[in-house]
Write a structure and sequence with these properties.
single chain; 431 residues; five-stranded mixed beta sheet; elongated
């Protein structure tokens, strides 16, 4: 089964923590700080692989994690950077944030490689915090945390021309006749479960890429059948060839079919419905002479006044194909619009909040003290030296910037009241 959608989890590498250490040399009893910086975490990078044409690989591997950066070491040794992870995808893959559905990247056109999640920056070692008044800092900067995302990958076929129509009208036969594509052909509904691509080569004219979009049915725009899975693949096409069974070999009315398909296109995406379109009246070799009016004439009388050219063809014998293909090529030559590329709507670097672990601020009536706790507080206390002037100033800035002081004041704290954080008690004084 053709795989054109996938859900995966990605995670960038955490930055390595800065190191706290001091020089220990003979005859130098009080050496200065020499803690090294942490290495940067690895990034998650998406790259187009010309050899891929489906998202099948993502059905087996759903988790992609870059390497964490190493923490710094003694003697100013910097930690090793984490290795990036390269995720290979077929051209035309649209990367979306799973929950919101917003587009992060469209791997098509000139965009062949893009960093989706940047690795965390490594933290500074304690050597960076030495001053004239604080010559032996006992704290270092932690590395930036990793970022993680759940993604929805969607493959939207890259083609100049989309071939649309009901099942069994001859789309696969036409594609195999005019291109190098070899789709499987059989006589049952939803014959084609894969969007097949082929290149049309024309003598004396520029060729183009054509996609056989699997047979549509009424209600496809609402997801009936495999509607949405198929309709997405014509979003990039510039011209549509609407193939109908002019001979009504299955008893269908070709004019009604054309209106039905166009209605589905309009319901799914109005931009697609209004793209240039031609009608290929197929199976003319199966039309038998009778007293009734020629069905191709009926189709022309219905649609050519609306500006839609109709070409009688036989995909089996090849009759009328050259006229159709050269006309389509001429239509393409008059369209100067670049291929459709979906614009980003979500930037992981700015839209993902990291290091924002929860915390709580409460008042303990029994002990008559205010309590601040939570993972964010615990981490901050773990890498802050409160015995130093600079460390304590950092601690105060942390409480202010994270609006913890505002929450304490909202609870009614007064100067001299006690604030407790994981076994440490402080008296509150307003600046």
């Amino acid at each position: 089964m053709f795989a054109d959608r996938a859900k995966i989890y990605i995670r960038s590498g955490k930055g390595g923590d800065g190191h706290v250490s001091f020089r220990r040399e003979k005859y130098v009893p009080n050496g200065g700080p020499d803690g090294g910086d942490g290495g940067n975490g690895g990034s998650v990078i998406f790259e187009v692989d010309e050899g891929l044409n489906t998202l099948t690989d993502f059905r087996h591997i759903r988790k992609y994690c870059a390497q964490d950066g190493e923490q710094g070491g003694k003697r100013n040794c910097r930690g090793k950077n984490g290795e990036d992870i390269i995720v290979k995808v077929p051209e035309g893959t649209v990367v979306k944030e799973l929950e919101s559905g917003k587009i992060i990247a469209d791997l098509s056109g000139k965009n062949r490689r893009q960093t989706i999640l940047s690795g965390g920056k490594g933290g500074n070692g304690n050597q960076h915090y030495a001053t004239s008044t604080m010559q032996a800092p006992k704290y270092a900067q932690p590395g930036q945390p990793a970022k993680e995302l759940n993604l929805f990958l969607e493959l939207k076929v890259i083609a100049d021309v989309g071939l649309v129509g009901f099942p069994n009208v001859g789309k696969s036969t036409l594609l195999s006749r005019v291109t190098n594509a070899r789709p499987k052909i059989a006589n049952y509904h939803f014959t084609t479960l894969n969007p097949n691509l082929g290149v049309v080569d024309l003598d004396g004219a520029k060729g183009f890429v054509i996609a056989d979009i699997p047979g549509l049915i009424e209600g496809a725009s609402e997801g009936i059948g495999l509607g949405h899975e198929f309709l997405r693949h014509i979003e990039r096409t510039k011209v549509l060839i609407h193939l109908v069974d002019a001979a009504s070999t299955e008893g269908r009315d070709p004019i009604a079919d054309i209106y039905a398909i166009n209605k589905e296109l309009e319901a799914y995406n109005t931009d697609i419905a209004h793209r240039p379109q031609v009608i290929a009246a197929n199976k003319i070799d199966a039309i038998y002479a009778s007293n009734e009016e020629d069905p191709v004439t009926k189709i022309k009388e219905e649609f050519e006044p609306k500006g839609i050219k109709v070409f009688p063809i036989s995909a089996v014998s090849g009759q009328g194909l050259n006229e159709l293909l050269y006309y389509v090529q001429d239509m393409l030559s008059q369209i100067n619009e670049p291929p459709t590329v979906f614009e980003p709507e979500f930037n992981p670097d700015t839209d993902i909040v990291v290091g924002n672990e929860p915390y709580t601020v409460s008042f303990d009536e029994k002990k008559n003290e205010y309590v601040v706790e939570g993972p964010r507080i615990e981490k901050m206390l773990g890498y802050t030296n409160l015995d130093s002037e600079r460390g304590f100033k950092f601690f105060q800035e942390f409480l202010k910037n994270n609006e913890i002081l505002d929450e304490l004041e909202a609870l009614g704290i007064q100067e001299g009241d006690t604030v407790r954080m994981y076994g440490l008690a402080f008296s509150y004084y307003k600046e």
